[in-house]
Amino acid sequence: MATIFTKIINGEIPSYRVAEDDRFYAFLDINPLAEGHTLVVPKQEVDYIFDLDGDTLAGLTLFAQQVAGKIRQAIPCKRVAMVVLGLEVPHAHIHLIPINSESDVDFHKPKLQLTPAEFEAIAERIRG
Ligand code: 5GP
Could you confirm whether 93 is annotated as catalytic? Predict the structure, then answer.
């Protein structure tokens, strides 16, 4: 069965798209720790990130680097953190989170509640 991220990539489930190329897709996390919290995924459906072939893993990282640059231009922050958990959705993904302090990457924190219009405005700012 297709993962929820494959359904997002295929447009069967809506998402706030941030960036895309033929192999990778970036979109806003629906339960963000911060404005601009983005997920970067390979279109290829592989559960565990370190099971990706080397070329795809390298490509995913380079794609994330480009997206992080766009996030940093759009969202005031000290840095963009790169976090890999993968405990919830079995489709390899990188979290990119704008941060100002270590506590900004605490996944136990209450998530931001944003309206669809706010999500879309953030995605638009990052897309540039
Ligand atoms: P992880 O697998 O890295 O532990 O967490 C998965 C992440 O995917 C979570 O931060 C969660 O909010 C996000 N997520 C789960 N389902 C959806 C969805 O349908 N749409 C979006 N945009 N994000 C999702």
Answer: yes
